[in-house]
Amino acid sequence: MANKNSFLFNKFNYILLIISIVVISIGFILMIGGGGTTDFEFNKEIFSAQRIIVAPIIVIIGYIGLGFAIFYND
User: Fold this and answer.
1) Alpha carbon distance 32, 12 (integer Å)
2) Cα–Cα distance measured from residue 4 to residue 8, given in angstroms and rounded to the nearest whole number
3) Which residue range is the domain that position 61 belongs to?
C-alpha cells in the first residue's frame, strides 16, 4: 500500500473556502434584525433593501465561491 500523506485540497482551495465561509456569514449577519419588539408591532425595517436584496446576493456569491473552492483543481 502506498503511504498517502497529502491533503485533499491545496492551499488555494482552503483559502478560497475560508473566504467563502466568511462572505456567507457576512450575508447572514446583514439579514439579522428588523423585527418588532412585540408580536403585534410591525417594523418596516424588515423589508429594507439590505435584508431582501443585498444580503441574499452576498450569500449566493459566497455559495458560488464555495462551489468553486471545492471543484477547482490544479
Assistant:
1) 31
2) 10
3) 11-71
Cell of 14: 482552503
Q: Is residue 47 part of a domain?
A: yes
For CA atoms 54, 59, 62, 67, the dihedral sign is: negative
What is the number of domains present in the chain?
Answer: 1
Q: Is residue 2 part of a domain?
A: no
Q: Look at residue 69 in the predicted model and tell me its pLDDT.
A: 94
Indicate whether 68 pLDDT > 90: yes
Q: Which amino acid is present at 33?
A: G
Kindly report the pTM of this predicted structure: 0.82
**What are φ and ψ of residue 28, in 5° steps?**
-70, -35
